[in-house]
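Illustration: Tyrosine recombinase XerD.
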Amino acid sequence: MSITNVARTWLTHLAVERGLSDNTLKSYRRDIDRYCTWLQGIGITDIRDVTTEHVEHYLADLRRGVDGHTALSASSAGRALIVARGLHKFALAEGEVGVDVAADVSPPTTGRHLPDTLSIAEVTALIDATPASDTATPADLRDRALLEILYGTGARISEAVGLSVDDVADEPEVLRILGKGSKQRIVPYGSVAKQAVSDYLVRARPVLATGKSHALFLNLRGGTLSRQSAWAALKKAAQRAGIDKDISPHTLRHSYATHLLEGGADVRVVQELLGHSSVTTTQIYTHISQESLREMYKVAHPRA
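Result:
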């Protein structure tokens, strides 16, 4: 059976029996027309003559861009492959072919975005940019303690502003952090962060506390510090430190994980500290560390 007839029947099936929207059908029709045209261009008109190698070559041509066509990104080529695979799967179900030649063709891998991180020197400059001297305001001491907690524990911003005074008073060596899905984890934090929190509790929080809130971090009205205000404190510190990177509270979490791994921490330990349900999520930070190693190699090795 001709490839165009199978394609026409499949599109009708998608419209009538699957009830796909007009926009989705338009997108499918565009991709299937491109696939049929490509096959006809190499002399194939019967779907029974298509091989796995043909599908692989089609995918490669999409990525390269041939015959004056713009090369597609990995995600766009992957969507086009999904349509081609759907067509061959339908042909098999309809008995037009005896094997699905596209089933084992894998979509191109998309470049995985690595989280933005700060160097240890940049983190130090960021935190030190917020005053902690005798002339520091209550808001300064609060913001410094907040930044120390974010970097010292890898807590999410929502987890940090959700801390209560009891969370730091009960066990001074660790924090009990309530994470996603109401899952609690125990995270140690260092002497520098503990000192910043202590200074805040002694010198600043009593000034800010105007009500009965048990929240650790308070706003100027005595209520719980919001995520937006915590974000603003970070942005202010970055400006003071002269850091031009577009950073967020999550940047400190990413930096925390990366610096732990670069310091020799086991990835499963970092998984527990971050509260990730799967180690696969944590392993993205090992890629960041590998990038650092590669850059160091390029700079240091005479034959790099």
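Reading the tokens back as a structure: DSSP finds 15 helices and two strands in the chain.
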